[in-house]
Specification:
Strand order of the largest sheet of chain B: 3-7-1-14-11-12-13
Number of strands of chain B: 34
CATH topology of the largest domain in chain B: Aldehyde Oxidoreductase, domain 4
CATH class of the largest domain in chain A: Alpha Beta
CATH superfamily of the largest domain in chain A: CO dehydrogenase flavoprotein, C-terminal domain
CATH class of the largest domain in chain B: Alpha Beta
Structural class of chain A: alpha+beta
Shape of chain B: globular
CATH superfamily of the largest domain in chain B: Aldehyde oxidase/xanthine dehydrogenase, molybdopterin binding domain
Largest sheet of chain B: 7 strands, mixed
Number of domains of chain A: 3
Helix content of chain A: 25-40%
Strand content of chain B: 25-35%
Distance between the termini of chain B: 49 Å
CATH architecture of the largest domain in chain A: 2-Layer Sandwich
Helix content of chain B: 25-40%
Number of domains of chain B: 3
Oligomer: heterodimer
Number of helices of chain A: 11
Order of helices and strands of chain A: EHEHEEEHHHHHEEHEEEEEEEHHH
CATH topology of the largest domain in chain A: Enolase-like, domain 1
Shape of chain A: globular
Number of helices of chain B: 19
CATH architecture of the largest domain in chain B: 2-Layer Sandwich
Largest interface: A-B, 26 and 31 residues
Largest sheet of chain A: 5 strands, antiparallel
Strand content of chain A: 25-35%
């Protein structure tokens, strides 16, 4: 398969990258791992006039904790997250389930977040744990809360001239646990259904904070706010998880397609929400 | 299994000799079609229809022609001027090369661009404007045969509906009588979905027609280069001596590289007209949406059984979805391939099979995807039926099979549909597999698990394959008899070159066939070079598919080796001053019977063949054999799969997979096991995830590897392989084909296992692929 003609700019700094983007405008696309963009180009679904390669920019490849946060740079590959001791809870659980080993070695977490594919894993995980997306433009930097960042299918709050330079994810201070249960048809497939769960417990063992988010069952990754509200303040139990799972199933509006029927996908959401929350609680109780 | 009779350094039959071809393939020194580069090569890209059914009112290729770097834009009208707008198919139909009147499936070839590089050729496709007028798409054979359905093949003389063929076999009266005697009739309606062989290397051609000499050298991903040469001569009218087909290393075929595709014809015509080499290599999507698909049979089977579990008769009604052109690659006597082998491994006297094919607005094909001509569908149906019959009669599915097996002493056994099975011991095979898997314990575990709400299923398939087409009295493709050949030449230093009419796509011919020579002549397998794929340098044959290489080409190799052995003995007799009939040949040593110290080696004899001959003997040590097999060979196997089903989601996982195969004598046990593992993986794929499906508009869902799923090592279960070895009585070395056994036999085992897990709920069918939503829906519906 043969893409259309394009120009290539190799940026040496974030400044250079965003300046280049400002110069080219709409026809420019940033290239990090390229695991979505390159296949789209070779299938001639995307035809950027200019690719701005950010892979040579120094200092964007760290995944580390500081000041109570996990920081993930724009060039951190999925495989780096999977291998990192700094990752935690649902993030550590999800990393090995992103795509396949080849894609994980090349593709970046930030690129996946910015792509806003509703079948992508990371935005569900971050909607559950909470996170801020760090965006840089020639005019300066801003931090966008993940729930605001994710706007729709392939649509983010990112402005035309902004580059995602990193993610800032709060690390819970108390007992916590997380999970990411993904049903995929084969390794490397997008999720048919996936559920990200995140629970923080207070000293009494009750749920102090909860995150529950769904992949591939709506036009956008979905944070199930009412389920989270039901969980907070409760002692973890099969009953409360079942109640949250019902709300998760109700929040899912999947379609019939080759992966399966809508009714079945909703059933998988229900099952995985129950199991995922139970796994998160077990992890939290053991932490 | 029998121990090898040759020492390891000779590496005859029974030795797991390392594959000779692997080193070059692993080290990047293979030579695949797209590796071949000729000076001045032009590149072709094909414009394909986005619609499933539409009339073409006009094609404007002006802007594409004007693009810098474009040499030519080829349309159907241009092909028509040379009489090449249509071409014959392997099943006696005609197929559009480039559409002139209408498009009949999404992905059909509409125009081609020839340009100086593939990027420009692809750019130019976007500049061609086609004026389409929508016609109603027909996406199922049921719709296709309805009264008043749109006529797909309106160009075909005498065709006033969408029926492709009707075909029946067996004895309807005897079958009727058997059903009248039955205590019950077990019915199964199931769809074997459309799948695609999806070789990792897509199809391609590099056509180099010399405008001065008329010599056409055609590099092509071909499983059947000789047949393709002859068909090119017949279709394009080129003199056959001027056509040389070279099939280089092939990255998998699985039946997909048997047909002649429109792109081959256009590229060859373009090279002829332009006078430069033209290369065309399909993209993945082109391969999946337009080239030979497989299966797509809607089957209704009825089994007449007694309360004791005896099968009395079988009735099958089958409707096949052929796509827009009837282009099955199959023996021409049979409209539904060897589907009538559907009586399987069982001894009963009556069967009747009634088949229909229908045109639809889908890609044509009907290739035998790792299968001997529709046997996969047949084997699947009977093995599913027998299991369901066991549930209905109330006996164990293993016992049901044991009560109905053809017994070892019944071979050769003629089935109700006329196949003559050559050899086998089915009860021993099944019992061995049952013991290995621990069947009785598993049934207890299953019952205990059910009590806890867990779902465990045990599925059995005992298949019989019919491979090695075939005897010339019965088997031809497009009029070409399905014989095959081997030419063996021993050089003066005792090294040999073996030339074959068959052509490997990864099966290991370069090793296996050398081992046959090693067995027969005692020349070490490493000293035998195997050449194949170049029609100027190998003898004629029908090629490699339908597990026919070893049954036919392997037999030819044994026979030609024996011819040379006879001559070698005469030369040895001369050298040893003994009588011809007193010489025996064992592992490369020719000695006088009773005086083992009076001996020469095969290498001594080879030198003598060119230097020191008996009076009147012709120089040289070489010969050629064309082998016409007396019968097919009938490999078989017992496969047992254990699954656990998640009742909440329908997701199922394979816990065990025990596969016993009997393919007669195993030439290279390691290669045989590799073939079996590959076939089991593909069988698993079809059972679990793999299908080509279409939406109501005829859009193909499954046009790339994101939607057409090929399992990786991660999904693929672990296989436990077992073997028995009942030789073929008519094959020179007792071997049977094996490449496709596992694909044929295993889908029923996987599906039966899932059904078995939920059979107590009353579930009797879930169509392939057995997707978790279908399992969950079946459980849900059963309450």
């Amino acid at each position: 398969m043969f893409p259309s003609r394009f120009d290539l700019v190799v940026a040496q700094s974030v400044g250079e990258a965003v300046e280049a983007k400002a110069d080219v405008g709409e026809g420019g696309r940033f290239l990090a791992g390229g695991q979505s963009l390159i296949p789209m180009m070779k299938m001639r679904v995307a035809f950027p006039e200019t690719l701005i390669d950010i892979n040579r920019i120094a200092g964007l490849d760290a995944v580390e904790r500081s000041n109570g946060h996990l920081h993930v740079g724009a060039l951190v590959r999925h495989a780096d997250v999977a291998a990192s001791d700094a990752a935690f809870g649902a993030i550590a659980a999800a990393a090995p389930w992103v795509a396949d080993p080849l894609v994980r070695n090349r593709g970046t977490m930030c690129g996946s977040v910015a792509h806003c594919d509703p079948e992508g894993d990371w935005n569900s995980v971050l909607l559950a744990t909470g996170a801020a997306v760090i965006a840089q433009s020639p005019g300066g930097q801003r931090a966008i809360p993940i729930a605001e960042f994710v706007q729709g299918a392939f649509t983010s709050a990112l402005a035309e001239d902004e580059l995602v330079t990193g993610l800032r994810i709060p690390v819970p201070s108390g007992r916590f646990g997380g999970s990411y249960l993904k049903l995929e048809r084969k390794i490397g497939d997008y999720a048919t259904v996936a559920v990200a769960s995140h629970l923080e417990l207070d000293d009494s063992g009750a749920i102090a904070a909860a995150g529950l988010a769904l992949t591939s069952v709506n036009p956008v990754n979905t944070k199930v706010v009412d389920a989270e509200a039901v969980l907070v303040g409760q002692q973890p139990s099969p009953e409360v998880f079942a109640e949250a799972a019902e709300l998760a199933a109700a929040a899912a509006e999947p379609r019939d397609d080759v992966r399966g029927t809508a009714a079945w996908k909703r059933q998988v959401v229900r099952t995985y929400a129950k199991r995922g929350l139970a796994a998160a609680a077990q992890q939290a109780e053991g932490s | 299994m029998a121990a090898p009779t040759t020492p390891a350094e000779i590496g005859g039959i029974g030795h797991s000799v390392q594959r000779k071809e692997d080193a070059r393939l692993i080290e990047g020194q293979g030579n695949f079609l797209d590796d071949i580069d000729l000076p001045g090569t032009l590149h072709m890209a094909i414009l394909r229809s986005p619609l499933a059914h539409a009339r073409i009112n006009g094609i404007d290729s002006g802007a594409a022609t004007a693009l810098e770097g474009v040499v030519a834009v080829v349309t159907g009208d241009l092909m028509d001027q040379h009489g090449l707008a249509w071409m014959p198919t392997l099943s006696g139909d005609t197929q559009a090369v480039l559409a002139t009147d209408k498009v009949r499936y999404q992905g059909q070839e509409v125009a081609a661009v020839i340009a100086v590089d593939p990027y420009i050729a692809t750019d130019a496709l976007e500049l061609i404007e086609v004026d389409y007028e929508d016609l109603p798409p027909i996406t199922t054979p049921q719709q296709s045969l309805e009264e008043g359905a749109a006529l797909i093949r309106d160009e075909k003389e005498g065709q006033d509906d969408n029926l492709v063929y009707t075909w029946e076999t067996g004895d309807p009266v005897a079958t009727e009588q058997a059903f009248a005697r039955a205590d019950r009739v077990v019915t199964l309606e199931t769809h074997y979905p459309r799948s695609h062989p999806a070789p990792l290397e897509t199809c391609g051609i590099l056509a180099d027609v010399n405008s001065v000499t008329g010599q056409a050298t055609i590099y092509m991903t071909s499983q059947a280069p000789h047949a393709h040469r002859t068909l090119f001569a017949m279709v394009a009218g080129l003199p056959e001596q001027n056509i040389r087909i070279v099939s280089p290393d092939i990255g998998g075929g699985f039946g997909n590289k048997v047909p002649i595709y429109p792109g081959y014809v256009v590229a060859t015509a373009a090279s002829l007209l332009i006078g430069r080499p033209v290369k065309w290599v399909e993209s993945r999507t082109e391969n999946l949406i337009s080239t030979g698909f497989a299966r797509d049979y809607y089957m209704k089977g009825e089994l007449a059984v007694t309360d004791e579990g005896r099968i009395l008769g079988l009735r099958v009604n089958m409707l096949s979805d052929q796509g827009a052109f009837y282009s099955d690659a199959q023996p021409s006597q049979f409209k539904a391939g060897l589907f009538h082998v559907v009586t399987g491994s069982y001894d009963f006297g009556a069967a009747h099979i009634d088949c229909k094919g229908a045109f639809t607005n889908k890609a044509p094909g009907g290739v035998a995807y790792r299968c001997s001509f529709r046997i996969t569908e047949a084997s699947y149906l009977i093995e599913r039926l027998v299991q369901n019959a066991a549930y209905e009669v109330g006996i164990d599915p293993a016992e049901m099979r044991l009560r109905n097996f053809i017994q070892p002493e019944q071979f050769p056994y003629e089935t109700a549909t006329g196949f003559v099975y050559d050899s086998g011991d089915y009860p021993t095979a099944l019992r061995t597999a049952l013991e290995e898997v621990g069947y009785d314990d598993l049934r207890k575990e299953q019952a205990e698990a059910r009590a806890e709400g867990r779902l465990i299923g045990i599925g059995i398939a005992h298949f019989t394959e019919a491979v090695g087409a075939g005897p010339s009295r019965t088997y031809d493709i497009a009029g070409l008899k399905m014989i095959d050949s081997a030419e063996l030449r021993v050089h003066p230093t005792g090294k040999a070159i073996l030339k074959l009419g068959v052509k490997t796509q990864g099966q290991g011919h370069e090793t296996t066939f050398a081992q046959i020579v090693a067995e027969e002549l005692g020349i070490p397998a490493t000293d035998v070079k195997v050449e194949h794929g170049d029609t100027d340098h190998t003898p004629y044959g029908l090629g490699t598919y339908a597990s026919r290489s070893t049954p036919v080409g392997g037999a030819a190799t044994a026979v030609v080796s024996r011819k040379l052995a006879d001559k070698a003995k005469k030369i040895a007799a001369h050298l040893l001053e003994a009588a011809d009939e007193d010489i025996e040949l064992d592992s490369g040593v020719l000695s006088v019977v009773g005086s083992p110290d009076r001996s020469v080696t095969i290498q001594d004899v080879a030198l003598a063949a060119y230097t020191n001959l008996p009076e009147g003997m012709e120089y040289g040590l070489e010969d050629v054999t064309y082998y016409d097999p007396p019968n097919l060979t009938y490999p078989y196997g017992s496969y047992i799969v254990v699954v656990e089903v998640d009742p909440d989601t329908g997701v199922w996982e394979v816990q065990r997979m025990v596969a016993l195969d009997d393919c007669g004598v195993r030439i290279n046990p390691m290669i045989v096991e590799g073939q079996i593992c590959g076939g089991l993986t593909e069988g698993f794929a079809m059972s679990a995830m793999q299908w080509i499906t279409f939406d109501d508009d005829g859009n193909c869902i499954g046009a790339n590897f994101m939607d057409y799923l090929v399992p990786t090592a991660w999904e693929t279960p672990r296989f436990e392989l077992l073997a028995t070895e009942v030789p073929s009585p008519h094959h020179p070395i007792g071997a049977k084909g094996v490449g496709e056994s596992a694909t044929v036999g295993s889908p029923a085992a996987f599906v039966n296992a899932v059904i078995d897990a939920v059979a107590h709920l009353g579930v009797r069918n879930i169509d392939m692929p057995v997707l978790p939503d279908r399992v969950w829906a079946a459980i849900d519906a059963a309450g």
